[in-house]
Amino acid sequence: MSKGLKILCKDPALELSYYQDYQFSGSKSQQEKLLRESSILYVENLSIYTTEEQIHELFSRCGDVRNIFMGLDKITKTACGFCYVEYYNRDDAENAMWFLNGTCLDERIIHTDWDIGFREGRQYGRGVSGGQVTGEFHEDFDPGRGGFGRQAQI
Amino acid sequence: MRGKVTSYRDIIKKSQHLQCTLIKLGFACSLESNLEGLAGVLEADLPNYKSKILRLLCTVARLLPEKLTIYTTLVGLLNARNYNFGGEFVEAMIRQLKESLKANNYNEAVYLVRFLSDLVNCHVIAAPSMVAMFENFVSVTQEEDVPQVRRDWYVYAFLSSLPWVGKELYEKKDAEMDRIFANTESYLKRRQKTHVPMLQVWTADKPHPQEEYLDCLWAQIQKLKKDRWQERHILRPYLAFDSILCEALQHNLPPFTPPPHTEDSVYPMPRVIFRMFDYTDDPEGPVMPGSHSVERFVIEENLHCIIKSHWKERKTCAAQLVSYPGKNKIPLNYHIVEVIFAELFQLPAPPHIDVMYTTLLIELCKLQPGSLPQVLAQATEMLYMRLDTMNTTCVDRFINWFSHHLSNFQFRWSWEDWSDCLSQDPESPKPKFVREVLEKCMRLSYHQRILDIVPPTFSALCPANPTCIYKYGDESSNSLPGHSVALCLAVAFKSKATNDEIFSILKDVPNPNQDDDDDEGFSFNPLKIEVFVQTLLHLAAKSFSHSFSALAKFHEVFKTLAESDEGKLHVLRVMFEVWRNHPQMIAVLVDKMIRTQIVDCAAVANWIFSSELSRDFTRLFVWEILHSTIRKMNKHVLKIQKELEEAKEKLARQHKRRSDDDDRSSDRKDGALEEQIERLQEKVESAQSEQKNLFLVIFQRFIMILTEHLVRCETDGTSVLTPWYKNCIERLQQIFLQHHQIIQQYMVTLENLLFTAELDPHILAVFQQFCALQA
After folding, report:
1. What average pLDDT does range B530-535 have in this prediction?
2. Which among A29, A19, A34 has a CA at the least distance from the CA of A118?
């Protein structure tokens, strides 16, 4: 029996996004393979005040959460607006991509993306000032991200 | 071009193009010219792409039932142009139907039957042969020694096709149809309905009766018949092509014998139709079709089908729902909200994960900001008003939905409208609901936010500030036994002590329970557990991660202290004392302790039914913990079973290779694998035994506390139906419903050991209703 209309079964939410981790040491196809099997999500646009508890509550609605790694500012070691959420299985992570991506957490719209997995060092922001790269440049005053972007403050 | 061979790439390209075209049919206007054009193109493609076209059309029949009449019209036009193709398509559909039934794919099979019956309208299938098929379907009601749910399905497949084809079949074969109806009616009158109370969202029949699904459908079809099969809602593109189609030659369906019942057959569960709106709820808009009108059935069916097709993509799903054809003649937003809540509250379980419905509703609010939020608010208000008779499981889902929904809209709500709950007994459904919602809202934000969003009058219902309670913390605790050890431990923890160092500090803690210690000094000592767990959890209170680290670092101490069953129970008790203000922390700690085998599932079950938790027994977090525990147990069993299966398969493959190669050297490898299989077999048996034991413990405890309550009420002469009782008996139901597949395996044990005839009829009724679900 036919497996079904490919277009109907094709899932834009699960298509790999544009992002490629430039620090990943394998090939692009290796990275893609890991992403397609991953049950870890990268979550961004969090407020720096968002707690592990809030993240856990929201993401638990999609399945049992195995681990949460809070993204930290490399210098101050405080939360800087992103995190990794790991599930026990891929299905639960898919639920999160379908149903939590683009909805609110702590009254901000969060975005989720597939991640290749936690390695030591990936919990730190890669922006020059210690926070996230995106945090360097935003010109609007975002109290949930500590005010103006660092570059805009210079 | 006769000599040209169609390349594989051409076929793929053609197939993709065709898929696109098929899916897009019906989206734009000018459906008729599109259909005509497409029929022409397909007819030309038949020589080269026939099997692909057949397969695609069968697939859309199966997967896009909300657009069935569009595709049946297309098939009708093709049949008019190419009689042989029509015949092959019908054969392919029958093959697909048989496969679906064999694979227990009953929901899809209904769509296939409906498709076939609409082909009668398109002059592809001759009416008498369709009537004959329905005769065979309904004759299943005469089968003996088969589950009722089997007979139900065949009746459902027949009745649910009639809105589409009833008129045509009755016009051609009224005497036969009358006979089939008579048989159906007598079946519906004699079938069992014990299962109904377990599946109703509300126990009250006002304002809308919660009808069993076959009863409702029968009433709808009866009304349609009385109205002489006049049905105006279904979109019927084939009417525009009548002059072409009536010239076509029709095919006869081959005689269809329903495949026999086997042990592996699993039929759909019965349902109760969820109704929350009627024509009085939208006085200004178009009239909502009545509950027994066939229009109501068709609209609901189509909306359910749209959700089923697009649930993973909420934007598409929402767009499809709001652009439902004929939406100007019906209060579409009301239908959409009702259908979504029908799925969310469906018992035993929603068709899709709960959170999907939350985000779908949010998406709909975004898409129709001027109209849908008001309907949703109206619905929420209604659900609140009827909380007194709502099934506890459904209330849980309502709490989770509403809190998550509010967190996406800055927690804006007119709480004062619900001030009536403030003067009620705090254990009654409305104040309880508000308390639980605020607790969940707090988990998604923070304590002060909750205090800010509700009027001051609601402060009694606000959750406690989720702080840690450390009993050795202040000066008054100096006199508590173990106080000095607690201080010692605190210092040790802060200076990064090892497990051994902790053991040596704990060695000198006296055991208040025992007169003489045994040699090891590590038998169950509640005081040791108390000082250790209190101090460690207090120091690790900062976040979940801190607490998990603490559990991991001192795992050895935990395991030793909690070695006995009493030890496990006491660890849970102490943890609860420390974190009783923070139910979320309690839940994640219990989860971690089970996963790291500090406590086992049975200990958690016993703890939940213990007297320490009796005050919180009706709170949602307790049941979330219990169900999560059961789920972990179930997953554990499945995992080991899978490992065993894989090992067995590996051995089988090895044997096959050996017999192919005739190689003796793999004998040794066999031995190791066989040993592994034996070990896994033991592991599976032990896991299954643990699982069975868990359910026995849970059911036993339920029976004990319910019996206690019933006996007390009888001696006191008070009513049994207190809020506590309603909650408790529905929690028992919930165990059955949420884990019905696993529990089915243990039915005999349950019947013989626990749910015997001597049991109070109130409790036994729950078991009997459960048995009736797959009977």
Report:
1. 96
2. A34
**Shortest alpha-carbon distance between residue A35 and chain B (Å):** 19
Q: Do residues B157 and B100 make contact, with C-beta atoms less than 8 angstroms apart? A: no
Q: How far is CA B349 from CA B343, B344, B397, B406, in A?
A: 8, 8, 10, 23
Closest CA to B134 of B255, B26, B216: B255
- Name the 3-class secondary structure at B401: helix
Global pTM?
0.91
**What are phi and psi for residue B503, nearest 5 degrees?**
-55, -45
The residue among B335, B297, B322, B286 whose CA lies nearest residue B114 is B297
CA–CA distance, B22 with B68 (Å, rounded to integer): 12
> What letter represents residue B552's amino acid?
A
Say how many C-beta atoms besides its own lie within 10 A of residue B16's C-beta. 13
> Are the C-beta atoms of B64 and B229 separated by less than 8 Å?
no
Q: Of the candidates B107, B492, B565, which has an alpha carbon nearest to the alpha carbon of residue B304?
A: B107
The pLDDT of A56-63, averaged and rounded, is: 98
Sheet holding A111-115, edge to edge: A65-72, A79-87, A40-44, A111-115
Alpha-carbon gap: A9 to the closest alpha carbon of chain B (Å) = 9
Segment (H or E) for A114: strand A111-115
Report the share of chain B in percent with pLDDT over 70: 96
pLDDT value, residue B99? 95
Residues of A whose CB is below 8 A from B448: none
Q: How far is the C-alpha of B289 from the C-alpha of B292, rounded, in Å?
A: 8
Beta pairing partners, A114: A41
Q: How close, in Å, is residue B15 to chain A by CA atoms?
A: 10
| Rounded distance between C-alpha atoms, residue A154 and residue A152, angstroms | 6
Q: Say how far residue B661 (Cα) sits from the centre of its chain.
A: 49
Which of B104, B117, B216, B120 lies closest to B157, judged by CA? B117
Residues of B in contact with A4 (CB under 8 A): 59, 62-63
What's the CA gap between B86 and A121, in Å, rounded?
A: 63
Q: Do A106 and B628 touch (CB under 8 A)?
A: no
Amino acid type, B599: V
Contact A52 B404 (CB under 8 A): no
List chain B residues with CB under 8 Å of A48: none
CB contact (8 A) between residue B445 and residue A64: no
CB contact under 8 A, A2 and B358: no
pLDDT attached to residue A152: 54
Torsion of Cα atoms, A22 then A25 then A31 then A37, to 10°: -120
Single out the residue of B166, B187, B186 nearest to residue B177, CA to CA: B166
User: Is A62 within 8 Å of B355 when comparing Cβ atoms?
Assistant: yes
Q: Cβ–Cβ of A8/B55 closer than 8 Å?
A: no
What residue ranges define each of the domains in chain B, with the CATH number in brackets? 7-194+209-246 (1.25.40.180), 309-461 (1.25.40.180), 628-772 (1.25.40.180)
Residue B109 has pLDDT above 90, yes or no: yes
What is the distance between the alpha carbons of residues B760 and B703, in angstroms, rounded to a whole number?
9
Q: Which two tokens stand for residue B652?
A: 């089988």
Q: How far is A34 from chain B (nearest CA, A)?
A: 22
Distance CA B611, CA B616 (A): 10
- Dihedral of CA B349/B355/B356/B359: which sign? positive
Q: Are B349 and B357 in contact (CB under 8 A)?
A: no
CB-CB: which of A2, A62, A70 is closest to B55?
A2
SS (H, E, C) B430-470: HHHHHHHHHHHHHHHCCHHHHHHHCCHHHHHHCCCCCCCCC
pLDDT band at B147 (very low <50, low <70, confident <90, very high): very high
Count CB atoms within 10 A of the CB of residue B393: 20
DSSP conformational letter for B541: T
d(C-alpha B48, C-alpha B40), whole Å: 14
